[in-house]
From TrEMBL:
It comes from Pseudolycoriella hygida. The lineage of its organism: Eukaryota, Metazoa, Ecdysozoa, Arthropoda, Hexapoda. It is a multi-pass membrane protein. This is Barrier-to-autointegration factor-like protein. Keywords: ATP-binding, Membrane, Nucleotide-binding, Nucleus, Transmembrane, Transmembrane helix, Transport. One of its GO terms (molecular function) is ATP hydrolysis activity. Residues 125-364 form the ABC transporter domain. Signal peptide: none annotated. Belongs to the ABC transporter superfamily. ABCG family. Eye pigment precursor importer (TC 3.A.1.204) subfamily. Pfam families: ABC2_membrane, ABC2_membrane_7, ABC_tran, SAM_BAF. The chain crosses the membrane at residues 460-478, 490-510, 530-557, 569-592, 680-702. It is found in: Membrane; Nucleus. Gene3D superfamilies: Barrier-to-autointegration factor, BAF, P-loop containing nucleotide triphosphate hydrolases.
Length: 710
């Protein structure tokens, strides 16, 4: 063993602080790193950490003892010492080998490596006098959530923002990441300079609490789409694949790369969310409650991963509600909030001395994380909160940081990180061109549409089923003069089906896509314009397919006039009603959530039906309400259907089975319902105008929603 390895071996046996050997979580982490540095065989290193994970306390103590004794021997004897020990415990080694496969699946817990994601220069994040106020609603005034708080989050560290519910944890994370801009005052500094939000967004990412991933794509497909968006042409295809494979391997997802993302466990989904953002190798990562909803093992996996990413030079900032003692020790720094104020900012190892300094000692055998949360919840009185806020100077005090002497002023940071090293600012936040974004979005959308049982399979099935039912109910009603009223009812039923089905389907599904849109758009995957363009273009093929199946079936079964021109007119009106209904659904879905949208969409459609001229003829509508007929897209749809079937010089209808045929002449029927038979092109153009208008309105409502949530 080299002299360098001997030097590291001395470091292995250094005292572990006040922790007992039985505190496997802390000791195992330190020991594992030291043994790797010392050059010991990887198998024995992994074996030691394997014993840690299996909580084999006694065997672990023996192994620790042997390592420490090896330090007193000559360097040449150290390997043999451990070899002899491992020979003595062959059964344990065999147990390790028998479970080697399962351990290998999660080897990033032991010896994670990144070669395609190089270490990054650290980013120092500071904020001063940050205040956030929110509008409570009409005549309710404004409420201040954060109260002039301060803080310093050094680079290459894993920092946790803690506090009870409602303390402002997620709000502070949103403010620091730039996700929230409205109502924010104060200054945020990046490496000593005022944060340029556009530049900062290019070097950071934000991972939300809920795992917003595309459930209909596999893990590998999600990663490839993310690499296309975030890397563009920066890397060659084989280099992208190498980066994807490495990330999946290190994060323990390689074995699941062909699994549908919706079938992953909670911990796997969380790791996939992190993997998607790691594609662009961000320097700063914000995570909102990354351990929420996970079991203890999954929590450990996620936090260990964050620990490793921080060691590579990234600034990792996450919110966490109430960690266990084991997880709490994994964080470098902790920032505790209560009532929008800073109670503590500093190292996790110094929180107990800090509590003693303010005469609030942590009880023996009590988890410090639990105790400070109890204090933040005012379980011991609100005066304790005020005392801690004053002692911490609302976040300005740096005494309790891990190494206060290393904390640099803004001026020192500006000297170390000159402007020339900052990310270049350009007009585009996204890494790819608009056309490339549209191409990738279309590619992803087609795959999802093909697999979506609701938007595709069920929709086609419903159209076939309803066409058969209506066709059987109104069989051969189109050419019978005695059944003109029945056929008119059929046309209105077709009108309602074409508009309401697509509208309600969009209202129910679009809000679920909205959450993914907000995350991906903020993390600079694509622009809102290209996303909306892809939604519009992707809706055309499935609408054409469903409309074609339904129209051909119902047209033939109901005995409508077999003329190509009339069928073309009928199909055109059906397709435009489908498009207009979907556009209306986009408007409602962009503005309201699923619950409110499900109620409002049908309710708002009722006036459209009443002004269509079905229940009340157009001539019988009062003059002061007649304006409603001009804004009702259903009026144009119904009039277009009637014109296609009975207008344009339709010949005399058959009346073979009726002794008296009132509507033998179509012009008589048109006169009674106050419709003209030569208005088809007028009605079609009106529907096109409605379609374009609703699409534009839906886009601006969506844009407003994206801005409003921030």
């Amino acid at each position: 063993m080299s002299s360098t390895s001997q030097k590291h071996l001395n470091f292995v046996a250094e005292p572990m602080g006040d922790k007992p050997v039985s505190d496997l979580a802390g000791v195992g982490d330190v020991l594992g790193k030291r043994l790797v540095e010392a050059g010991f065989d990887k198998a024995y290193t992994v074996l030691g950490q394997y014993l840690v994970l299996k909580k084999d306390s006694e065997l672990f103590k023996e192994w620790m003892k042997e390592v420490c004794q090896a330090n007193s021997k000559q360097a040449s004897d150290c390997y043999q010492c451990l070899n002899d020990w491992c020979d003595e415990y062959k059964s344990t080694i065999q147990l390790y080998e028998s479970e080697c496969t399962s351990v290998e699946k999660e080897r990033w817990l032991f010896d994670p490596q990144f070669s395609n994601l190089p270490s990054r220069d650290p980013i120092d994040l500071q904020f001063k006098d940050v205040t956030y106020t929110v509008n409570m609603g009409f005549r309710k005034g404004r409420k201040e959530i954060l109260h002039q708080i301060n803080g310093k989050f050094p680079g290459s560290q894993l920092t946790a923002i803690m506090g009870p519910s409602g303390a402002g944890k997620s709000t502070l994370l949103d403010v620091l990441s730039g996700y929230r801009k409205t109502g924010v005052t104060g200054n945020v500094y990046v490496n000593g300079r005022n944060r340029n939000l556009d530049t900062f967004r290019k070097m950071s990412c934000y991972i939300t609490q809920d795992d917003r991933i595309h459930a209909l794509l596999t893990v590998l497909e999600n990663m490839r789409i993310a690499s296309d968006f975030k890397l563009g042409n920066q890397l060659k295809p084989h280099e992208k694949e190498a980066r994807i494979e490495e990330i999946l391997t290190v994060l323990g997802l390689y074995e699941h790369q062909m699994t549908m993302s919706g079938r992953l466990s909670g911990g796997q989904k969380k790791r996939l969310s992190i993997a998607l953002e790691l594609i662009s190798n961000p320097t700063v990562m914000f995570l909102d409650e990354p351990t929420t909803g996970l079991d203890s093992h999954s929590c450990t996996q996620v936090v260990n991963l964050l620990r490793f990413l921080a060691n590579q030079g990234r600034t990792i900032i996450c919110t966490i509600h109430q960690p266990s003692a084991k997880l709490f020790q994994e964080f470098d720094e902790v920032y505790v909030l209560a009532q929008g104020k800073c109670l503590y900012q500093g190292s996790t190892d110094k929180i107990v001395p800090y509590l003693q300094s303010v005469e609030l000692p942590c009880p023996m055998y009590h988890n410090p994380a639990d105790y400070i949360i109890e204090l933040a919840c005012a379980e011991y009185g609100t005066d304790k909160i005020d005392l801690m806020v004053r002692s911490m100077e609302n976040g300005e005090c740096i005494r309790w940081l891990k190494d206060p002497s290393l904390v640099m002023s803004l001026e020192e940071l500006r000297k170390i990180y000159p402007l020339s090293t900052n990310a270049k600012d350009d007009s585009s936040l996204e890494a790819t061109s608009p056309l490339s974004q549209l191409k990738i979005l279309m590619k992803r959308g087609f795959v999802k549409t093909k697999r979506d049982t609701t938007l595709t399979h069920l929709r086609i099935g419903v159209n076939v089923f309803l066409a058969l039912v209506l066709g059987c109910l109104f069989v051969k009603a189109g050419n019978e003069g005695s059944r003109v009223v029945d056929n008119y009812n059929l046309l209105f039923a077709i009108l309602i089906h074409q508009s309401m089905t697509t509208m309600m389907l969009t209202v129910l599904t679009f809000p679920t896509e909205l959450s993914i849109l907000l995350k991906e758009h903020f993390n600079r995957w694509y622009s809102l314009k290209m996303y909306y363009a892809s939604v519009t273009l992707l809706s055309i093929p499935i609408s054409v397919v469903c409309c074609t199946i339904f129209t051909i079936t119902i047209y033939i079964m109901s005995g409508q006039p077999m003329e190509w021109s009339r069928f073309g007119m009928f199909f055109a009106i059906s397709l435009m009603m489908d498009f207009v209904g979907q556009s209306t659904g986009l408007m409602v879905g962009a503005w309201f959530d699923v619950v409110n949208g499900t109620f409002l969409a049908p309710t708002l459609s009722i006036p459209m039906m009443m002004f269509a001229g079905f229940g009340v003829t157009l001539r019988d509508i009062p003059n002061y309400l007649r304006w409603g007929t001009y804004i009702s897209y259903m009026r144009y749809g119904l009039e277009g259907y009637v014109g296609a079937i009975y207008g344009e010089g339709r010949a005399t209808l058959e009346c073979d089975e009726a002794p008296y045929c009132h509507y033998r002449y179509p012009s008589k029927f048109l006169s009674e319902i106050s419709m003209r038979g030569d208005q088809f092109w007028y009605d079609l153009n009106a529907l096109i105008i409605n379609f374009v208008f609703f699409r534009i309105c839906a886009y601006f409502l969506l844009r407003w929603k994206v801005i409003a949530v921030r």
